[in-house]
Amino acid sequence: MKNTVTKLLARAGVTAGVVLGTPVLAFAEESAVGPDILIPKMAEFIPALIAFLVILVILSKLVWPSVLEMMEKRQQKIQDDLDAAERSKIEAAEEAKSYEAKILEAHHEADAIVAKAKKEAEEVRSAVLAKAQREAADIIAKAHGAVDSERHKAMIELSSSVVDLSVEIASKIIGNDLSVEEQRKLAEKYLAEVGKSDGR
């Protein structure tokens, strides 16, 4: 800005020199050619030149600083706006990176939740399957126990019937040589031996 002021003052000085030099040449030629209506007389020129210089000084002291200050403020505002735009651009890029990181983190969390849900579902399925297998084994064991119990009961009933039948047959075959009690003991002994041989 100071360079601009210096240039403007230099131009004003050159202009003043030209203005000062022109009347001298004009007045020098007046005697040879005659008065020119466009060239001012010396009596008019001096006050006009003084007025011009006064206005120039007033403008350079009062107006130019305000104009230069306004231009400097304008330039500073433009620079501030450019800096603010650059900062906004950088902040926007940082926010975009932050959002991308948050989205990536959300994807990871979602994957972890899905994996956890799958694992828990597999554990529940395994627990239900194990429980069902245990219950099935219990039912089978109870069924075997019931079958064994019924079989044992049937064997006892059958043994009793066989003993009675054997006693009856033996009494018919042998006659009355053995008492009923002896015949029963003999039949039970025989059945016990048969049961042992079947158990082998």
UniProtKB/TrEMBL annotation:
GO terms for cellular component: plasma membrane; proton-transporting ATP synthase complex. InterPro entries: ATP_synth_B-like_membr_sf, ATP_synth_b/b'su_bac/chlpt, ATP_synth_F0_bsu_bac, ATP_synthase_B_chain. GO terms for molecular function: proton-transporting ATP synthase activity, rotational mechanism; proton-transporting ATPase activity, rotational mechanism. Pfam families: ATP-synt_B. Its main location: membrane. It is found in: Cell membrane. Residues 68-102 form a coiled coil. Signal peptide: none annotated. It is a single-pass membrane protein. The keyword Transport applies. Keywords: ATP synthesis, Cell membrane, CF(0), Coiled coil, Hydrogen ion transport, Ion transport, Membrane, Transmembrane, Transmembrane helix, Transport. The chain crosses the membrane at residues 44-64. F-type ATPases have 2 components, F(1) - the catalytic core - and F(0) - the membrane proton channel. F(1) has five subunits: alpha(3), beta(3), gamma(1), delta(1), epsilon(1). F(0) has three main subunits: a(1), b(2) and c(10-14). The alpha and beta chains form an alternating ring which encloses part of the gamma chain. F(1) is attached to F(0) by a central stalk formed by the gamma and epsilon chains, while a peripheral stalk is formed by the delta and b chains. F(1)F(0) ATP synthase produces ATP from ADP in the presence of a proton or sodium gradient. F-type ATPases consist of two structural domains, F(1) containing the extramembraneous catalytic core and F(0) containing the membrane proton channel, linked together by a central stalk and a peripheral stalk. During catalysis, ATP synthesis in the catalytic domain of F(1) is coupled via a rotary mechanism of the central stalk subunits to proton translocation. Belongs to the ATPase B chain family. This is ATP synthase subunit b. It comes from Candidatus Olsenella excrementavium. The gene is atpF.
